[in-house]
Amino acid sequence: MPTVAPLDLDGHCVAAVFLNDVPHFAMADGLVHRLDHGHKTAQANDGLLCATRDAAGDRLITGGEDGKVFALTSDGTVTELAEAGKKWITSVAAGPQGAVAYAAGRVAFVRFADGKAKEFSHPRSVEGLAFAPKGMRIAVARYNGATLHFPAAEGKPTELEWAGAHTGVTFSPDGNYLITSMQENALHGWKLADGKHMRMAGYPAKVKSLSWAPRGRWLASSGAPAAIVWPFQGKDGPMGKAPLELGTRGNTMVTCVACHPSQDVVAIGYEDGMVIAARFADAKEVLLRRPGKGAITALMWDREERRIVFGSAAGDCGVIDIAG
Fold first, then answer.
1. Which of 189, 91, 89, 92 is nearest to 146 (CA)?
2. Burial of 233 from C-beta contacts in 10 A (0-12 / 13-18 / 19+)
3. SS3 at position 215
């Protein structure tokens, strides 16, 4: 039976991650808590809005209302990477070779490891950012679509159009697809080789959490009373195929999903604080955590695939040990 080590914190948990196998919880007040031979804290932004772990798994990148971008390492060292004046940092992304992207208003910035930065202006505000899995390429979610830039090269960006407000963005792990979450209750996608559209609609709520299964064969999503898992094995992705619906619980909405690092299993967090794991092959479920305080807002597996960190909108955080 899985065991849960709870950590009761104040406020909204923006991100829960492992940095070098140490559990970290980034809260909306800018405090980052870590469980490293005791409970320790480090101060990041004054009003934290977004956070992500970098590709190597050893830095947490944060942005916030103070217009600053910080990097935090597992020993508690906090380094300021960038500042955008009085504008809020609304999205951050971590890329290859230590590159970091961040959004402030209508501008997306890419900061390279040497400290040099490049900026890309857009007609409307930048809502989401993602680096491609291979090469130095970045996607920007915006009003009426997405824009792809090559930050290290000159040249025109690639514009992917679709009417509506696009709020988040992710590349498939093989780099073949770009998927955006939308202000309406839907996902939209493009097959990058030919620009073919993919529309994934029918959600009862906004999709706020997306997670790719290993090798990018499946895309799990929140926004329904089950984890909606789209198949990406075919040459046209999920078009014409029905998604899996895992962990259905009456009218209780799924608020967060995190796919297992190596198996076709997804951890599912709900609006009442419950967490389960579900297997794609047969929809078998395992209860990982009973309901608690606040909707689950963050989930992540560790490298050894036996622990999961979680955080909630009410600061109800902790670590689940699958092995018990």
1. 189
2. exposed
3. helix
pLDDT in tens, 132-159: 999 899 999 999 999 999 998 888 999 9
Give me the sign of the Cα torsion angle 74, 77, 81, 86.
positive
- Cβ atoms within 10 Å, residue 41: 12
- Hey, how many other C-beta atoms are within 10 angstroms of the C-beta on 60? 26
Closest CA to 245 of 230, 255, 259: 230
Q: What is the pLDDT of residue 155?
A: 86
Q: Name the amino acid, one letter, at 56.
A: A
* CA separation for the pair 216, 133 (Å, rounded): 11
Question: Other CB atoms closer than 10 Å to residue 297's CB: what's the count?
Answer: 24
Q: How many CA atoms lie within 13 A of 28 on its CB side?
A: 11
Regarding beta strands 265-270 and 254-259, do their DSSP bridges make them parallel or antiparallel, or are they unpaired?
antiparallel
> Cα separation of 73 and 57, whole Å?
10
